[in-house]
Amino acid sequence: MYPMIPTLDFSREDLKPGTSYWETTSKNIRQALEQYGCFIVDLHEKAPFDLLARVFDSLKQLFDLPTPTKMKNKYDKPMNGYVGQIPALPLHESLGIDNATSLQSTRSFTDLMWPRGNDRFWYVLIIRILRYFPEYNVSFCSDCMHRYAEFVAEMDRMVARMIFGSYGVAKYYEPYMKSTSYLLRLLKNRAPKDENPYLAFVTHTDKSFTTILHQDQINGLEMETRLGERINVDLSSPSLFMVIAGDALMAWSNDRILSPRHRVLVSGETDRYSLGQFAFSNGTLQVPEELVDNEHPLMYKPFDHIGLLHFYRTDIGYRAECPIKAYCGV
Known about the structure:
Elements: E1 7-9, H1 20-35, E2 38-42, H2 49-63, H3 67-70, E3 92-98, H4 103-113, H5 119-132, H6 144-166, H7 173-178, E4 180-189, E5 194-204, E6 210-215, E7 221-224, E8 230-232, E9 240-245, H8 247-252, E10 262-268, E11 272-281, E12 284-285, E13 303-304, H9 305-312, H10 315-319, H11 323-328
Parallel strand pairs: 1-2
Antiparallel strand pairs: 2-9, 3-4, 4-11, 5-10, 6-9, 6-11, 7-8, 7-10, 12-13
C-alpha cells in the first residue's frame, strides 16, 4: 500500500488544550512523527492568505537582487546565512533571517539587503497591496516577514506543546520554549525548463528541533520513509504547511520520533519559492528521564543544540551517516 503522510485539521475552534479534539490531535501528531517524522497541517479558511501572498511577492523581489548583495547575508551560526552558487546545486539559492520573530532582526536583514533603502522593492509591493487591499497602510510592508515568522512560530509552539503533552512530559515544555529561537530561511529553486525532475537540494535531515515548511504551490518536496520509500508531497494548496521533525527532536525523544531524510526535485518552467522556519534551542537538550525505560534505553547524552550545527560543519560531522548520533550518541 502506498504510504500517505497524515494531514491534520488545525482550523477547528475546539483545537484548544483540555478539549477532546486537542487530545486526539496530539495523539495523531505523535503517531505521525513516530511513523513518518512529519505531517501536514491544513488551516483551511484560517490560513493568512493575504499575508502569504505578500510574503511571496517579497521573495521574488529579494532574489532579484545582485548576488554580491545576497552574499552579505552571514551569521556566526553555521548554515544560517546565504547559500547558493554551488556548482553541484545550480538550481538552489537561499537566505536566512536568524531570530526571525524579532522585528529588529527582520528589519536588520532588510537594511542589509537594501543599505540605501529598498524603495524599488517596497514601491512594487506597496502598489500591489494597495491595489487589492487598500485598507492596509505602508508600514505593514516592512514587517511582513516578521508577521509571517510570528504566525509560524505560534503554530510551532502549539505543535511542541502537543508533542510534550502526548509523551507525558508537559512540565518540560515551558523551559524548552524559553530557550527556543527561530531561523527563517527564504528559498528559491530555479526552474530547470525541463519536464524531467532535477535535483534542487540534496537528501538530508534537518538539524532543528522542528521545521515548518510552506511553498508557493509549486511542488518539489520528496520525503523518505523508514523503509526507504519516497513520497512526493503535495502542498499545492496555500492552506497547507509541512511540519518535519529534526535531528534534535529525534534525540530528545530517545529515537521514538523519526528525523526523516528528504530532498527537493523540481521540473517545468516555473521557479519554486518556499519558506522554512527552523526551531533551535539556545541551551542544552536532553532526553527526559520519563522516556528512558527497559524498552528504550538511553541513546543520547545531553547536547548543546547550536553545537550540533558547528559539529555538522566538520569533516566528521558532515560525513557521518547520522550526525546527531555521531555528535552525542551514547
